[in-house]
Amino acid sequence: MRRARTPAPLLVPAALAVVFLVLPLAGLLIRTPWSQLGTLLTAPGVGQALRLSLVSATLATAVSVVLGVPLAWVLARSRARGRAVLRALVTVPLVLPPVVGGVALFLVLGRQGIVGSWLAETTGITIPFTTTAVVIAETFVAMPFLVISVEGALRAADVRYEDAAATLGADRWTTFRRVTLPLVAPGVAAGSVLCWARALGEFGATITFAGNFPGTTQTMPLAVYLALQRDPQAAIVLSLVLLVVSVATLLLLRDRWLGRGAAA
């Protein structure tokens, strides 16, 4: 079927939307000091911030996969009561301001927090303002992206394969490992990429719960914020690095999203 032509009244607002979304990115590329790119990228602290961002985002994604995939299965396949409430609680971090999330984490895991006070008294371990706090903050804000993606994949998967495995004598754990996980592997991969990208760009919860200490808790978004006050050129270069990572994330998801949209 030949696609219908776009109505003229929709073209102008659509064009304005494209300009609104693309122009800031174009401005970032235009104002980038390309001649100083290498010098600014090798400046002290930039490598530390980039390395810490990559490591913490990867660890946060790993924790989210270990905890989020089982949670997604419970939301998608379990018949337990209260699933609607549980799903609402899981998605709260998506709409919660990140700074509020950081405050909430601080009230629970801080030195005087509900769990943090007990942890400090019994083991002498304090979590806030450490690299561990960065990973926890990123996991808190990023895990819902993975859970929602995997839950959607589980709901779309054909349960007949799982039923066939059950009739052949496979228990639920074996069915989950050998049948369910391979079926939803694309959803897990897409959710992991989204989770990693969200963790990499986290700012509010991180600066509230972990602080902004170079080499320990200063990730790339925090380094951009600090550089903007002292050296705007460096802030532009650091922003460009995050832009490249974002574009790479979209390219990784191209076959899952853009390809599906084109096929439709």
Automatic annotation (TrEMBL):
Which GO terms fall under molecular function for this chain's record?
Answer: molybdate ion transmembrane transporter activity
Q: Does the keyword Cell membrane apply?
A: yes
Q: Where does the sequence pass through the membrane? A: 52-76, 88-109, 129-150, 179-199, 234-253
Query: Record's InterPro entries?
Result: MetI-like (IPR000515), MetI-like_sf (IPR035906), ModB_ABC (IPR011867), NifC_ABC_porter (IPR006469)
Per the record, GO CC terms? Answer: plasma membrane
Where it sits in the cell: the answer is: Cell membrane
Q: Which family does it belong to?
A: Belongs to the binding-protein-dependent transport system permease family. CysTW subfamily.
All copies of the ABC transmembrane type-1 domain together span 50-253
Q: Which PROSITE patterns match?
A: ABC_TM1
Spell out the Gene3D superfamilies in the cross-references.
Answer: MetI-like
- Put simply, this protein is called Molybdenum transport system permease
Question: Sorted alphabetically, which keywords does the UniProt record give?
Answer: Cell membrane, Membrane, Molybdenum, Transmembrane, Transmembrane helix, Transport
The protein's matches in Pfam families, at most eight in alphabetical order, are given as: BPD_transp_1 (PF00528)
Could you tell me the membrane topology recorded for this protein?
Multi-pass membrane protein
The protein's role, per its UniProt record: Part of the binding-protein-dependent transport system for molybdenum; probably responsible for the translocation of the substrate across the membrane.
